[in-house]
Amino acid sequence: MGKTRRNRVRHIANSNPLGTTNLNDFLNGDEDLMDNGLGPVDTMREQLLNVNVEEKLNALQSLAVLVQSGKKDKLTAICESNIIRIAAPYMFDRDQPLRNAAAGALRNFTVCMPEVCDIFVEQDVLTPLLTLLDEYAQNTEWIPNFDSAMGGQLDIRSDTFLQAINLLWNLCESSTIALDTFNQTQLIGSLIRCLDHTIFGLDIAISVAQCILVVSESNQRVWNVLTQHVPALLSLLELTGGYGQHYLRTLGAGILSNVPALSAAYTSNILNCLAQTLAIDQQEALSNVLNGRVENERNDCVPVLDINMETEEEETEEAAALRRRRQELPTQSEIAMKDVANLLDAHRVATEIITNLVSNDDEEWVDSEGEDASEGEGVVDYEVENSNSNGDIQDLDKLPAELVEIIKSLGIVQKLWQKAQVLPDNVAQSLRDVSLGLVMKVKNLRISSLLCLQNLCNALSPEDMGGAKAIYDVWVELGQQVFKGPQDVTVMEPATSLMRAALERLKPNKELFGQMADNDLELIFNGVKNCSVAEIRANWLRMLGTLGCLLPETLVRTIITFIVEACVEEDDVWTISEALDSLMDMFADNDWPKIIVELNLPEVLKKLEKMFRNKIRQQRRELKERYPAVQTVRTNLSRFIRYMEIEADKYAKNA
After folding, report:
1. Which of 16, 57, 91, 394 has the most Cβ atoms closer than 10 angstroms to its Cβ?
2. How far apart (Å, rounded) are the C-alpha atoms in residues 219 and 211?
3. Is 0.90 surpassed by the pTM of this model?
4. Are residues 572 and 651 in the same domain?
């Protein structure tokens, strides 16, 4: 699969801080909002252009509410208007609440609708955003204030910085123009000091680390600055404490791993840090949070004597505002869930860092699914018997011995396998009842763990992965999870990719598959027939080709028949090419002349070849970088058919 792009799950801040506009009323246009004859978007625009600060605040609050609703038509209408261009300069307004509302609303917009990032850049959000952040950078004495009476809440100026740095992070990840513009500033050096969570708090430190992680990916200008702050980055690897500290520590490891010189110099430090993070049992942490929530709910049910002392003095506006703020503070359960969310994110980032450490941009590291790998394999000449074509899969190992030893000594593979496990049914159901956000984080962690294991499986020898039996057990268990669990294609793709990579490693171990029978193959056949995703079908068909090299001839016949029929029924030309390639692999080390003749393979494949050529012509544009690999399969197929004909003739003469 090659290098992985970090899949971030962003946190949406309080998108309705004023608490005065009803979501349904606003979206549906109540009388107060519509009495001017304008729709919600036009009303917002009029309010933003009003000289009154309260009107502007109401407009920004309305924008936050609308973004929260996810109403695509209204969000599109905003993008097509000039509202973003009008709202953006308020991030650098003299009024602090206005700054905060603008930064928060725009940040949330990029979270709920990431595709707006290019529009934000076009509408010049970067100018006020970078000007705002530069103000913090120039003021070296600025540090946040935390209100202990309000649960350690940030002061409004510091919260504005938090919103702004998250907005910058989102824009730089989605837009190369934003990243290029950021590179022209001197901000990166000033952001380093914000990584000290003892001064700036965990929320700011984590968000800044996330931003630096994004902007430091394949960015030499940022590397040059980061190499001047090595002690500060290394100090992050020594953090201890709660799950938030673990997340910050992991992000620090990711930043170091993004800088080639630092990654090479501190590989051991980075992997040790990641292993410590991965050693924490996320299932136990989730269970503790769920159990704590139940206990808190039980305590909340205890009746409390409510004594209402009537006084002549009415509540002041300031006191009422303070009371409302306290009511909006997160509960203990919400704080605990945010904490475990940090752990899940730390685990996910750790798996992605390891994936990138064991991958490389050089051609020799390209996965066998890529174009370069297919061209490197060349065209197989099936007219010449090639008894050595199987090769030793271990010859493909490419990782430096020192890196392999570190991975083995830290038990990285075993830790990743634990992260790839399905939650117990009772925990999963309780989690769905409590937080869909945590459910998504658990799923994302599982996906990234499976992808990381696939990369390791491709890069390590079977012995370094724990031995052939351990790999076989993983293959079997994944198969059970795939066939028995819910058919979530986002998990099925990495799961079947890992199964495919594991099975490829087991080619020398035929003895492990002695118990396989027709009904086992039927599961895979049904997997191909019932799957709507071409990538997953290709993985199943590839596995069938590998199994064809491991199973007895009676099952091989069944596999060949199915692969041919699947190719006839398949619409996706890439999947057909994968299936045909796997079919040809089956004959690389095996001669089944009887099967060739009885199934009339030369004639069957000739018809298939004609269909294959037509589909290549039809889908050439969609293939893009895969086109050369498909062409290689097409060329191989022609020679394979000639080989089939020769083998059939030999069999007929001998008979």
Report:
1. 91
2. 13
3. no
4. yes
- For 597-602, what is the mean pLDDT? 94
> Buried (b) or exposed (e) across 126-143, using 16+ Cβ within 10 A?
bebbbebbeebbeeeeee
Q: Residue 651 CB: number of other CB atoms within 10 A? A: 17
572 and 470 in a common domain: no
Range of the domain at 173: 1-184
Length of the chain: 655
Average predicted confidence (pLDDT) for the chain: 85
Are 381 and 354 found together in one domain? no
Please report, as a single letter, which amino acid is at residue 258. Answer: N
138 token code pair: 């120039």
Q: Which residues contact 228 (CB under 8 A, 6 or more apart)?
A: 189
Query: What are the beta bridge partners of residue 156?
Result: none
Tens of pLDDT, residue by residue over 210-267, are 999 999 999 999 999 999 999 999 999 999 999 999 999 999 999 999 999 999 999 9
Task: Say whether both 276 and 416 belong to one domain.
Answer: yes
Total of domains in the chain:
3
- Please give the sequence-ordered ranges of beta strands (E in DSSP) within 113-152, or none if there are none: 146-147
Q: Looking at the domain assignment, is residue 191 inside a domain?
A: no
Is 527 in the same domain as 654? yes
Alpha carbon distances (Å) from 628 to 374, 396, 610: 8, 22, 18
pLDDT digits (tens, 9 = 90+) for 519-557: 999 999 999 999 999 999 999 999 999 999 999 999 999
Yes or no: say if 475 and 499 are a contact pair by the CB < 8 Å rule: yes
Helix (H) or strand (E) holding 154: strand 153-154
First to last CA, the chain: 46
* Closest residue by Cα to residue 249 from 271, 216, 225: 271
Q: Is 40 in contact with 66 (CB distance < 8 Å)?
A: yes
Rounded to 5 degrees, φ, ψ at 146 are: -115, 125
Residue 146 β-bridge partners: 154
Residue 455 neighbours by CB under 8 Å, 6+ apart: 1, 4, 355, 358, 359, 367
Helix (H) or strand (E) holding 153: strand 153-154
Asked if 567 and 576 count as a contact pair (C-beta separation under 8 A), the reply is yes
CB atoms within 10 A of CB 580: 25
The 3-state secondary structure of 50-107 reads CCCHHHHHHHHHHHHHHHHHCCHHHHHHHHHCCHHHHHHHHHHCCCHHHHHHHHHHHH
